[in-house]
Specification:
The chain has 289 residues and is of the alpha+beta class. It is built from five helices and twelve strands. It has helices spanning 3-10, 25-37, 128-139, 196-207, 247-260; strands at residues 45-49, 52-58, 65-73, 76-81, 95-99, 105-111, 117-123, 174-177, 184-189, 219-228, 233-242, 274-283.
Length: 289
């Protein structure tokens, strides 16, 4: 870890962000999430709730809403994805913040484990929408936190199941298992006689094999595949529905499926020879072991 990061972590304390700072806590958190996740600062909204700042944005690529929590301890920005864990583990990349000597710029540095440093600087004008949010929040109750992801309604966007000639695609029920803060989610279409518990078991098994060295990327890989009647994951059926555009990342997602190899057999009352699913792998938190 670089010298700046060491100095920042050594000076950490439980003190709150100075009330007389030219930048509000919400502005600091917005700058931090921008550095950590590479998002457009104008796309984010935020509200302060005591020492906690809640932020959210809608990802343009798929319309899903992402939420974050943030707090400031000394010179370090501590954040969490949705209702997930705070990024305080020694392996988590520290976010260090400081205000320029003239008070006109906010500097944020993200020290990643591979030795790289992402630095961002902001003026108050670039973060002014936070002042507006703070003023609005002073006159209105703080809303309850939103779920991590609110997917767009799925109607025809996922051609995931081989439909029989007597079934209409519009009538297929979408089943999914998605846990807030988890790195893997799974969904399928047309499995009315397959309990959601089965999907949860599959997701958990695959996630236990999902290991990678990346963190704070905000990228995801979506892979479609078949689960055969005996629970075998059919490797020949792998189709990347959405790539991270990073071949190495995509390979880590495929590796998780290959290492899992087999999941519990499909239930006896599931009459089709296989189940088609799409699994989403989020590269938002380092998990290499």
């Amino acid at each position: 870890m670089g010298g700046d990061a060491q100095r920042g972590t050594q000076s950490l304390g439980r003190q709150d962000w100075p009330a007389d700072s030219p930048f509000s806590k919400a502005q600091v958190c917005k700058a931090g999430i921008t550095a950590a996740m590479g998002r457009d600062p104008d796309s984010m909204t935020a509200r302060e709730n005591g020492s906690i700042v809640r932020l959210s944005y809608v990802r343009p690529s798929d319309g899903t809403r992402w939420t974050y929590r943030c707090k400031i301890e000394g010179q370090r920005i501590i954040w969490a994805l949705g209702n997930g864990r705070w990024r305080t583990h020694p392996e988590d990349a520290p976010l260090i913040v400081r205000v320029s000597s003239d008070g006109k710029k906010l500097h944020v540095a993200l020290f990643d484990g591979d030795g790289s440093v992402t630095r961002k600087s902001f003026t108050a004008d670039q973060l002014d929408n936070f002042k507006e949010a703070k003023e609005r929040s002073a006159a209105a109750p703080i809303p309850a936190p939103r779920p991590l992801i609110t997917p767009k309604p799925v109607v025809t966007a996922l051609p995931m199941i081989d439909l029989s000639a007597h079934e209409s695609k519009d009538k297929q029920e979408v089943k999914a298992d998605k846990e807030i803060g988890e790195a893997v989610s799974i969904e399928t279409r047309g499995a009315q006689d397959l309990g959601s518990t089965y999907l949860a078991i599959v997701r958990t098994q695959v996630e236990s094999n999902f290991r990678h060295p990346f963190s704070n990327t905000g990228l995801q890989c979506r892979i479609g595949f078949k689960i055969l009647k005996d629970g075998t994951i059919d490797k020949s059926s792998f189709v990347i529905k959405q790539s991270t555009r990073n071949a190495r990342m995509d390979r880590y997602a495929i590796r998780a499926l290959k290492e899992t190899g087999k999941v519990p057999p499909l239930y006896d009352d599931y009459t089709k020879p296989h189940l088609r699913v799409i699994m989403t792998f989020e590269f938002s938190s380092r998990s290499e072991q």
